[in-house]
Design goal:
With 118 residues, this protein is α+β, with helices and mostly antiparallel strands.
Length: 118
């Protein structure tokens, strides 16, 4: 997955936006004001921070050591840093979608209904 593909995929989700609260080099993808992905799209190798259920985060780290690690500058229990180029693209897409869904699940019901994700 290229940086352009990562950005495009993150922005495909309902109400997803890209912001730069940490400076111009870090793309922060949000839904309803909540972060679901962060990436420096110019960084090589390309990595992305993604939210994850704690049990799944541990499993992914065990299954893909050195490729999926505890989230850099994030809550290590709930976030992973993922080396995008070293994983199959379908898995990366699934992890991004899971991150988005986790964030949406924590939003108020009215917002979830607007996003068509009850």
């Amino acid at each position: 997955m290229t940086p352009e593909q990562l950005k495009a995929f993150c922005l495909e989700f309902d109400d997803a936006v890209e912001e730069f609260p940490f400076g111009p080099e870090v793309s922060v993808f949000k839904v309803a004001g909540k972060i679901f992905a962060l990436a420096d799209l110019d960084e090589r190798p390309l990595t992305v921070n993604l939210k994850c259920e704690p049990e799944n985060a541990l499993r992914l780290r065990a299954d893909h050591p050195d490729v999926v690690v505890p989230g850099y500058h994030m809550n290590k229990r709930h976030w992973n840093t993922v080396s995008v180029a070293r994983l199959p693209e379908p898995l990366v897409r699934e992890m991004i979608e899971d991150s988005y869904d986790l964030v949406v699940a924590g939003l108020p019901k009215a917002v979830r209904l607007r996003l068509d994700r009850p």
